[in-house]
Amino acid sequence: MNQTENVNQVSPLSVDDLTVAYHRKPVIWDVAFDLPEGQLIGVVGPNGAGKSTLLKAIMDLIPRASGRVRVFGDTYRNNRHRVGYVPQRESVDWQFPVNALDVVTMGLYDEIGWCLPVRRKHRQRAMEALDRVGIADLAQRQISQLSGGQQQRTFLARALVQDADLYLMDEPFAAVDAATELAIVDILRELKKRKKTAVVIHHDLQTVPDYFDHVVLLNMRIVACGPVETTFTAENLNKTYGGRLTLLDEVNEAMRRRETSL
Amino acid sequence: MRDYNTRVVVLGVAMLGGSSGLVGSFTLLRRRALMGDALSHASLPGIALAFMLATTLGYDGKYLPLLLAGATFSGLLGVGCILWIRNKTRLKEDTALGIVLSVFFGAGVALLGMVQQMKTGNAAGLEGFIYGKTASMSAMDVRLIFYASLIAIALSFANFKELKLLCFDEGFAGSRGYPVVLLDVLLMSLVVLVAMVGLQAVGLILMIALLVIPAAAARFWTDTLWKMTAYSVILGTVGCVIGAMVSAVFPNLPSGAMIVLVCSFFFFLSMFFGTARGVVARFLRRRRLNRRIDRQHLMRAMYEQIEHPDRSDTSALKPGSEPVRKTKVSIDELLLVRSWNWKRLMAAIRSAEVDELMQYRHGHAQLTHAGFIEAARLTRQHRLWEMYLITYADVAPALVDRDADNIEHVLEPHVIDRLEDLLEEQELLFPVPTSPHELGDGLTSSEEGILP
Amino acid sequence: MIFLLGDWISDWDGSINGWIVVIGCLCAASASLLGNFLVLRRMSMLGDAITHAVLPGIAAAFFISGTRNSMAMFVGAVIVGLLTAVFTEWIRSVGKVDEGASMGVVFTSLFALGLVMLVAAADHVDLDPKCVLYGAIDLTPLDTVWVRGLEIPRAAIVLSIVLVLNLAFVILFFKELKISSFDPALATTMGFSAKAMHYLLMVLVSITAVASFESVGSILVVAMFVVPAAAAYMLTDRLAVMIFFSVIIAVASASLGHIAALEVPTWFGFRSTTTAGPMAVVSGLLFLLAALFGPRYGVVVKWVRRQSLSWRILCDDIVAILYRAEERDTAMPGLAGLADELFASSLSIRSALLMLRRKGEIEGSDQPKLTPRGIDRARELVRSHRLWEQYLVVETGAETNRIHSHAERWEHFTDRPLRDELDRVTEAPDIDPHGSPIPPENKL
């Protein structure tokens, strides 16, 4: 369990024995996993399974009852600069008087440092990030004027510009249009090419095998964790989502439809 | 208390404290605690205008009902402005309050500057309307407060469930066809009503305090709205009575300020010792939870260690092999099982030792008989919960309450039966040894669980 | 220039009034600079809370120093002002109480405490709470100091320092303020402690509040913390621009406010009134203007925009109906027929027709008939409508009887490039799903 530190390749994110509880109720318990580097990792599980809680507990945003989190072999605090976080869209006030470019530039603030102004080259880089997510033409738009998908892309660009090694994304695919979904997937693949690791909370089972290499099935506890081919099985899904839901049938149906439509 | 004047004051502030506690609990839950602040300030131009108008027309400018009418009018105008800004512009609630407060008050100050130049009518003391004169409250003031309180109580009781819905979930109330804006206006009119009679009797700051503090204090004691309202009324009344009496005993101390201080003393008491949301209560709850989790982790770790006679192989379970209670488990082994540090593990062991669940000697821990039973019970329960999560994954997260003393208390018997069957299939179920003291009647659950 | 206004305002004494305006502007500008962040962080009531809460600081300073030394009182007041923010935040986070409520608890308690302390001190010295709370801007020019041979009001110097301080703060920490107000969690994960920024802001808010109300009275600074920033927020979507606007609005309210204080009361036969009040009122009026006529978010502007859109849609619908009638070769619908079909009052139909006629898109008064220009417009619309229907059927497999309402809405927002795109995607059909011909694109 603890050998990772002795091995040469340090896991970008290793969680050990993590338990988080609100009031009397445990939200996640005894969660433990080591994630491989340079992979796209999907975290899936039913509503209330504690997916967002897991990310927040990893980043010390909420207190944990027990457990240890290692980011590249060190505490989160010490390796904060190597982590990029894409929060859920509802977490900020979209009426705030900033435009998309400003929001993306925020990802560079720690690099710029205290009191120093944002310079042209930073804006340039923010612009490139916006270009990568495909909304460079909306850079000057106030953020409330963006559609849900465009807001999500803005957040993604902000994380990209941070140039982290590990990305934690909380439901980036929630309520976005198809074009945005494709754009996000493109970006994820590109991140993978550059040996970055992305941990993505995801709610759409159908697309898991397409989007991710590695999957963490979570339902308050880890049901399974491993490569998609071996882990994302009907049996494990059944354990995660329960047999009564016909979701599995739906997935099969959807896959069948896709195959026939191609 | 013998003094007639003191009695009048005590009676007046007691009623005022009660009714503002009542109204305040709604505004607090509506996240508009400072509404009273804004509306009290907003009454100033109305007072000045009423005075000017009356004096110009040749009446007595300081005729109380007239001033009150003026104050109420501009207070309601302020309410309208706040609602308009909140609903029609992109600005948030607090900014709406801030704008109305400062602009109306500014207008009031400007008008007062003009009033003071009027030759007819004596404007002196008009500001006292805002700053209050608690100690010299008159019987007339008390009567006014009485009527206002009656109205406020009647209205809030008549509309209790509508107001509750408004405070709890405005969107839902709207979707169910409740006239949200009208209810909002009703609530704010209650604030205006109480604030206006209170304002001239006890002053601006005390009025704001009475609208905010008792309700905020009551919030720490309960999570039920009607109880919170009741506590808020009681706290407001008691705070006012004590404050007024203190200042009667020490005539040097201004009564308004004393009432505020007594109320805020109550607030801090509640904040720390409130049973529902108080700081101490929450801290204790959190600590108890953490300790309990540590205890459970420890007992389970112990059980799992002694479950395998061959302890080098921790991955495979050896079904059928009876766990040996007296097996000594070294602390190093325990440290490896979980992510706890030495200090935390030792704390858990000590507390288990105090409860006579285990013995710890020379770096090795050993379960007592009671500890063995407890460890087995916890482990079994844990496995049942895990199995439950897997089997009933779709409904599980809402129901899982791993901390409940017994899984049997939460889940239906037939569900547990099924879970036990499933565990048995995987050879993970084991009998929980019964306590020797309960041999007669405690067999049920363990009998069922005996392995083949 | 302000020194010359005396020509047309009766009560104008050049130097005194000039200084009042200057001091008012200084106070307004410094408060509004910080006010932007108070408004954005939903702490608009803090200015009001601090001006009430500082009383015990003043009393304590008096107890400790034993004099009415203004420096000691200033320091005491700033410390308690900061404590107000600290306590508010502490009660909010530790007690899990809503921000407004915790602010209300803190400032009323502190004010009461200060009052009791002052009463206790009253045996020794006369310290009138009203006097403490009401510095009067009208009297500031009388309290002067000599600087390099110039007689300058003390308040002007103090407030200039505050203004420079605030300006430096906002410029230096612009991006830290921005990120910690917008997304505190991100700021903290990036190493800009949102808490540190919060308290730094609070220190300056207390300094500004105390410096201002001690010299010019509380009402002005409370108003200037909120109103100009709120007005600027209605005007723009850029933070830097918003700050700039708020300062302009603040300065304008202070100047106009003073003029109003001198002028308006005379209309009703009074002499001039206290200046701070009208300054606040003018800022309120400016806010009202911004809220009504702000270019994007103004209430009136939004209303007009909505109205003109529904107006355009009505006109669109009329020409489309006329076009279809012509196409089917049925009788042209009259006024009543149009009103019936469009669920509109005959008055709005009549005015829409009037407008169309003036644009030269229809002719004939009783029996409207499309002109060539009108036919062009109608053809675009009908083409969009039918292309959309085709698209819906082809691409989404929608049933033919359910597509009309969608197309009816979208046709008004479909321009030439979008139409071409639709045409391409649907492989340039000639007829729509209902069997009606899709008219060709207009020739340019």
Automatic annotation (TrEMBL), chain A:
What UniProt keywords are attached to this protein's entry? ATP-binding, Hydrolase, Nucleotide-binding, Transport
Indicate the segments forming the ABC transporter domain, all copies: 13-245
Q: Does the keyword rRNA-binding apply?
A: no
Query: One Pfam family of this protein, by short name?
Result: ABC_tran
Q: What is its EC number?
A: 3.6.3.-
EC primary class: hydrolase
Record CDD domains: ABC_Metallic_Cations (cd03235)
Per its record, what are the GO molecular function terms? ATP binding; ATP hydrolysis activity
| Ranges in a coiled coil | none
Task: Provide the family line.
Answer: Belongs to the ABC transporter superfamily.
Specify the protein name.
High-affinity zinc uptake system ATP-binding protein ZnuC
Task: Tell me what organism the protein belongs to.
Answer: Rubripirellula obstinata
Give the organism's phylogenetic lineage: Bacteria, Pseudomonadati, Planctomycetota, Planctomycetia, Pirellulales
The primary gene name is znuC
UniProtKB/TrEMBL annotation, chain B:
Any GO MF annotation of the entry: protein dimerization activity
What protein family is recorded? Belongs to the ABC-3 integral membrane protein family.
Q: What is this protein called?
A: Manganese transport system membrane protein MntB
Q: Which UniProt keywords apply?
A: Cell membrane, Membrane, Transmembrane, Transmembrane helix, Transport
**Ranges that cross the membrane:** 6-26, 63-85, 97-115, 144-160, 180-198, 204-222, 229-250, 256-280
Q: Which SMART domains match?
A: HTH_DTXR (SM00529)
The UniProt entry lists the main location of this chain as membrane
Tell me where it resides. Cell membrane
Q: Where is this region: Disordered?
A: 433-452
Q: Does the keyword Cell membrane apply?
A: yes
Q: Pfam families from the xrefs?
A: ABC-3 (PF00950), Fe_dep_repr_C (PF02742)
Residue ranges with Polar residues bias:
443-452
Q: Name one GO biological process term.
A: transmembrane transport
Q: Which GO terms describe its cellular component?
A: ATP-binding cassette (ABC) transporter complex
Looking up CDD domains in the UniProt record yields:
TM_ABC_iron-siderophores_like (cd06550)
Highest taxon, organism lineage: Bacteria
UniProtKB/TrEMBL annotation, chain C:
Stored Pfam families: ABC-3, Fe_dep_repr_C
Residue ranges of domain Iron dependent repressor metal binding and dimerisation in the record = 371-439
Q: How does it sit in the membrane?
A: Multi-pass membrane protein
* A GO term for molecular function: protein dimerization activity
User: GO CC terms for this protein?
Assistant: ATP-binding cassette (ABC) transporter complex
Q: Does the entry feature the keyword tRNA processing, yes or no?
A: no
Biased region (Basic and acidic residues) positions are: 422-433
Alphabetically ordered keywords of this record = Cell membrane, Membrane, Transmembrane, Transmembrane helix, Transport
* Region described as Disordered: 422-444
The record's subcellular location field reads: Cell membrane
**TM segments?**
16-39, 46-65, 71-91, 103-122, 155-174, 186-210, 216-235, 242-261, 281-304
**GO terms for biological process, alphabetical:** response to zinc ion; transmembrane transport
In the record, the note on similarity to other proteins reads: Belongs to the ABC-3 integral membrane protein family.
Protein name in UniProt = Manganese transport system membrane protein MntB
Report the gene name.
mntB_2
